[in-house]
Amino acid sequence: MIFGLLADLLVLIHFGFILFVLFGGFLVPRFPRLLAFHLGAVAWGVVAELRHWICPLTPWEQWLRARAGQAGYEGDFIERYLVSLIYPSGLTPRIQVLLGLSALTLNLGIYAWIIARHRRRHRP
Question: FRET pair for 121, CA 20 to 30 Å: which of 28, 42, 84, 113?
Answer without folding.
Answer: 42
